[in-house]
Design goal:
- This protein is of the alpha+beta class and about 325 residues long.
- It folds into three domains: about 1-60, Uridine Diphospho-n-acetylenolpyruvylglucosamine Reductase, domain 2 (2-Layer Sandwich), CATH 3.30.43.10; about 65-175, Uridine Diphospho-n-acetylenolpyruvylglucosamine Reductase, domain 3 (2-Layer Sandwich), CATH 3.30.465.10; about 215-330, Alpha-Beta Complex (Uridine Diphospho-n-acetylenolpyruvylglucosamine Reductase, domain 1), CATH 3.90.78.10.
- About 20% of the residues lie in helices and about 30% in strands.
- It has a five-stranded antiparallel β-sheet. It has a four-stranded mixed β-sheet with strand order 1-2-5-3, with no helix packed on it.
- Strand 6 (about 65-70) and strand 7 form a beta hairpin.
Length: about 325
């Protein structure tokens, strides 16, 4: 058995039948035996039970930087740690990703969820991805359009059957970027450079979010719901202070953490699982939690929000069962 404890930040004591650490593509031999799953550091996954197949752990490293006119082209191995990359880029005067500071996980995993924070999404800066089709071992490049980035979404998340492993991420950064300071906690600060933005983001996250090195969690468990104007108007009748943010296509984004908090679910405990006292959107392992305890808590939180607001919460984390990735609806 292959322990998945180092590869899921929920710190759940789960296992895969086999595991392969991928330092280079030559570590894989095709065709691969089914089933298998692809992991970085598991900062956006919840295992609901042991996995009966092979865990493929991407550990491909490397950083190449080229200046082309007024842009930087940066090629990064999928196994690099995202926060460490941000530090390296800032040391070279390359800005853009600082709003994503302190998010755990690898560079190769970040495009799958199109991770985002404080007004920035990783897809904003991705030029292309170098991927391997694990069904045959073919390596090819996907441009930004092909990645179909959306809110916490991408082609990879919508099409897991494609079985694509991200080997390298190619970024494009402007040499003279604009700081993204629209979000609360940034806009009201005197932040003059990217390094200052990074430190402020790290401080904000430290106040709100538990460090997965000490408290098992996968960050924000649920997506912020995206609704229409009619739903916003209905909610404002009873909750005039409800936070509402503009989304694309004339729709609006609600703060899932606020909804959970107002539903009486901040800081609650279910067995050895709970919601974080400083940010209700985060589900935590309070110590020795079992997968079913996290699942049961998540279902309870979702039901409470649905009863109070008529809003369905959908997980941001990816869910894995015995045979591979499963849907939220499949969990009881």
């Amino acid at each position: 058995m292959f322990s998945l404890l180092p590869y899921n930040t929920f710190a759940l004591d789960v296992h895969a039948k086999h595991g392969i650490i991928i330092n280079a593509l030559s570590d894989l031999h095709f065709p691969l035996s089914e089933p298998y799953i692809i992991l970085g550091r598991g900062s956006d996954v919840l295992f609901t039970e042991d996995f009966s197949g092979t865990a493929l752990i991407c550990n491909i490293r490397g950083l190449e930087i080229k200046r082309v006119d007024d842009e930087y082209m940066v090629r990064v191995g999928g196994g690099e740690i995202l926060d460490e990359l941000i530090v390296q880029l800032l040391s070279r005067g390359i800005c853009g990703l600082e709003n994503l500071s302190a998010i755990p996980g690898t560079v190769g995993a970040a495009p799958i969820q199109n991770i985002g924070a404080y007004g920035v999404e990783i897809g904003d800066f991705i030029d292309s991805l170098e991927v391997c089709d694990l069904s045959c071992g073919k390596v090819f490049t996907m441009d930004k359009t092909s990645c179909q980035f959306g809110y916490r979404d991408s082609y990879f998340k919508r099409h897991p059957e494609a079985r694509l492993l991200v080997l390298y991420v190619n970024f494009r950064f402007k040499a003279q970027p604009e700081l993204k300071l629209s979000y609360q906690g940034l806009k009201d600060q005197d932040l003059n450079d990217a390094a200052a933005v990074r430190e402020q983001v790290r401080a904000l996250r430290a106040r709100k979010l538990p460090d997965p090195r000490f408290v098992g969690n996968a960050g924000s468990f649920f997506k912020n719901p995206v609704v229409d104007a009619k739903t916003v108007a209905r909610l404002r009748e009873d909750y005039p202070d409800i936070p509402v943010f503009t989304a694309s296509g004339g729709r609006f984004k609600l703060a899932a953490g606020w909804l959970i908090d107002k539903s009486g679910c901040r800081g609650i405990t279910h067995g050895h699982a709970g919601t974080w006292e400083h940010q209700a959107l985060v589900l935590v392992n309070r110590g020795q939690a079992k997968p079913h305890e996290i699942v049961s808590l998540a279902k309870y939180v979702s039901s409470q929000v649905a009863m109070r607001f008529g809003i369905a919460l959908v997980p941001e984390v990816r869910l894995y069962g015995r045979g591979g990735e499963i849907s939220w609806e499949m969990l009881q």
